[in-house]
Amino acid sequence: MAISVQHVVVLLLTSLLIAITFFLFTSDNLRFPLPSLSSDYTPLPKSSNHDVSSDQTPHKMKMKLNASHEEVVVKWDLCKGAESVDYIPCLDNRDAIKQLKSRRHMEHRERHCPEPTPKCLVPLPDNYKPPVPWPKSRDMVWYNNVPHPKLVEYKKEQNWVKKEGEFLVFPGGGTQFKYGVTHYVEFIEKALPVIKWGKNIRVVLDVGCGVASFGGFLLDKDVITMSFAPKDEHEAQIQFALERGIPATLSVIGTQQLTFPTNAFDLIHCARCRVHWDADGGKPLLELNRVLRPGGFFIWSATPVYRDNDRDSKIWTAMVSLTKSICWKVVAKTVDSSGIGLVIYQKPTSESCYKKRSTQEPPLCAKEEVNASWYAPLRKCISKLPSGGVQKWPELWPKRLVSVKPQSVSVDVETFKKDTEKWSEIVSDIYLQRLAVNWSSVRNVMDMNAGYGGFAAALINRPLWVMNVVPVDKPDTLSVVFDRGLIGVYHDWCESLNTYPRTYDLLHSSFYLGDLTQKCGIVQVVAEIDRVLRPGGYLVLQDTMETIKELESILGSLHWSTKIYQDRFLVGRKGFWRPIKPEL
What does the UniProt keyword field contain (predicted)? Predict the structure, then answer.
């Protein structure tokens, strides 16, 4: 049969098209364009089944992730197990916990990080929704976002939390808050007027915080509270706090020091926090003494303060002896109309009392080391004051935010001033004006390498709070952060954070992730960022273009939206995508 010229042309064009298609899909140099954020905010779609990809896009991607341009395959899988929705790698290491020789000192509630660091993605709870916005979230959150009913039943008589329809509602009650937390906060200030919430007292630590209502209501007083509790039988209490938009972290006073600097907090609070302060030679109370600022206050509201049965009397007698030995002074002791009582102690401002003790027990500690509290054991000694002399209280808030003169870290005043001015300019001119971030949806923020806290200071007038992280491989500036009236923790970013999944709206990093990848894999760091961020949350990165390109590729494999600005800033926005569940 004769073949017409027209048929020949069609065959040639078809062959050419096949060849071009084959080349495009096999070329190592192909770079698929990633979805970009527009300057306008676009709400994320809700999905009835977030564990199944909506577009069936494969979750395996080849990328060049290092200077030698070696191809690395990133394959994302869901974390496994019945509790994977709330997976915290360093607190949920069951194998390590099973091998512990003792649990007497809460060792099973401390960090036990798995090796290698997991790179799986936590699934979303069924019917997860974007969080209730602040300030409404302080009083109510979506039940399906934190579907834990145990605490509702366990604390129903104490008004901690109630379930009402689709919501968990927080009335502001508590074990010691019989007339509500607002009454309790005012009761404290009446007992000791010098406290002056939000002026003299700015940075507070709440031990065994429950659902963090104490810290939540202190926000109205311009007080920032670091609320903490362990991951224990009080199911998801810290997750509730963070879902509410209240600063909180998972921690326990067990065998290791808290991840805060020495002489940091203006005031520490414990309301029936179930800590045996005189245990193990008084180590738990000595740890509070370490992190309490000279001249700072410790408020203890517990039955030994106002009941006189045999058990409570013995505990009170032990507390009297221990506080006297570390020179704490009782400055108030009272009972309110509800029958709830408290005692307020004050830490000394000089070491003269220590030297006058009849016995030097507990002894003074040796000189503090920088970053000393990261995986450091509790000590049976009294932490020294920064210079051994009389310590001055910081200036009243908010003046201390910009006028701080750090006592515990040698910082050049001019360097500090320039850092503050730099971050004020970057945040006001770029972050708030030019980047694709809907700041009205941002409440919980984390600065991955906070330095002096300049980023947080520049955001102080917005309705959000910042957890300032000082990496343990960087200069120890966390004392400066606290001196300014801000909060933060030490952390090693090669490990997972002590926080639940989906607890932050925005993570920020400035010229740090490139250095971090010299220590640990960038994929595992991104997996942790993905774990911590809520769907719809942002990663805001300032770094080199080399680091930005690496991050852009990996975030693309997670189906995040990305946008680069001025070849220096990257904004990534997490979506609802999760890998497809494997068939059983």
Answer: Glycoprotein, Membrane, Methyltransferase, Signal-anchor, Transferase, Transmembrane, Transmembrane helix
